[in-house]
């Protein structure tokens, strides 16, 4: 954990895709000491094509994380839009993201994954650092339980993400991939680690399946925050907040969770979720973190306020019970212990 308490807290956010981008958009309002550790199992779209053709890490989720951290200026926003731009053509460039091509070009020129991402970060004026969770491209496979009770083996992130039947377990291929040393160091040195929201089995849980990274998550002096999804998706059909927390603990039973953030509109049984959170070693914080337009996405300002509440709650270690649904505003204080 960071030794200099005069500094703003050091955060590490783990995940991928839109979920991680939302977390980073919130955390950049909380701290200027921020590292994103990103899944590298994407096998679809532009990333999948580059991965297959060039044998590189899939760059798409890394690109999205970098874009979420861009400087809030015309320069930063313009380069963010360039990175996110996709070509439309009848040829090989169709649907390729410019940022994916730029990242891979820097990897080839510099011969170093981290240096290449840092160069893109400097171009964007990024308010933080982006790292892959593993040093090699990964594949995801899952045991999926069909309605007739039969268990199918589904291979590939793009297929697992649309399973639409309950997932019993996920695994990585190779089974024990090497973690990126810089990612492990970031977790070791963090004050806070945030997991979620996002695709639970293909973006969040995979971090717990990389042995060296998982070991760092268990031993770090950082406190661990889990941000629960607002709704179920194609890979988590019928799963509520309690089941999401159960799945996390299934894949990492010894991992201590210090705080769980959930939107009260997504929780049917508050007491049950509070009990599951307590069983994992943590406290439940209910806050309205959903966007006001009704879309099932986290609002960066509201999520930033909720994360700040967690930090302040642990610093003060006191506060009222937040499980009252009428007190689900971002400005409320207190956590259930």
TrEMBL record:
The keyword Cytoplasm applies. One of its GO terms (molecular function) is LPPG:FO 2-phospho-L-lactate transferase activity. It is found in: Cytoplasm. InterPro entries: CofD, CofD-like_dom_sf, Gluconeogen_factor. Pfam families: CofD. GO terms for biological process: regulation of cell shape. The keyword Magnesium does not apply. GO terms for cellular component: cytoplasm. CDD domains: YvcK_like (cd07187). Residues 316-337 are annotated as: Disordered. Its main location: cytoplasm. Keywords: Cytoplasm. SUPFAM superfamilies: CofD-like. HAMAP family: Gluconeogen_factor. Belongs to the gluconeogenesis factor family. Required for morphogenesis under gluconeogenic growth conditions. This is Putative gluconeogenesis factor.
């Amino acid at each position: 954990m960071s030794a200099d308490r005069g500094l703003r807290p050091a955060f590490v956010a783990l995940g991928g895709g839109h979920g991680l981008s939302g977390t980073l958009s919130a955390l950049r309002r909380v701290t200027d000491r921020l590292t994103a550790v990103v899944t590298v199992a994407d096998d679809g779209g532009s990333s999948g094509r580059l991965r297959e053709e060039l044998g590189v890490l899939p760059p798409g989720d890394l690109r999205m994380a970098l874009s979420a951290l861009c400087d809030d200026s015309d320069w930063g926003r313009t380069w963010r839009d360039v990175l996110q731009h996709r070509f439309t053509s009848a040829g090989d460039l169709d649907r390729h993201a410019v940022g994916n091509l730029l990242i891979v070009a820097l990897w080839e020129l510099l011969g170093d994954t981290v240096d290449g991402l840092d160069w893109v970060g400097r171009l964007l004026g990024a308010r933080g650092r982006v790292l892959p969770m593993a040093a090699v491209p990964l594949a995801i496979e899952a045991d999926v339980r069909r309605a007739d009770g039969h268990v199918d083996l589904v291979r590939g992130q793009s297929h697992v993400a649309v399973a639409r039947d309950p997932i019993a377990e996920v695994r990585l291929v190779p089974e024990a991939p090497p973690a990126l040393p810089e990612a492990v160091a970031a977790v070791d040195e963090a004050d806070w680690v945030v997991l979620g929201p996002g695709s639970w089995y293909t973006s969040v849980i995979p971090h717990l399946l990389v042995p060296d990274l998982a070991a760092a998550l268990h031993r770090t002096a950082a406190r661990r925050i889990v941000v629960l999804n607002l709704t179920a998706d194609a890979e988590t059909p019928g799963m509520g907040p309690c089941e999401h927390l159960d799945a996390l603990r299934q894949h990492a039973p010894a991992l201590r969770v210090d705080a769980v953030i959930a939107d009260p509109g997504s929780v049917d049984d508050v007491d049950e979720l509070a009990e599951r959170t307590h069983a994992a070693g943590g406290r439940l914080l209910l806050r309205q973190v959903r966007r006001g337009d009704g879309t099932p996405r986290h609002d960066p300002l509201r999520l930033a306020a909720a994360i700040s509440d967690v930090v302040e709650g642990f610093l003060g270690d006191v506060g009222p019970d937040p499980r009252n649904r009428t007190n689900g505003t971002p400005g409320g204080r207190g956590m259930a212990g």
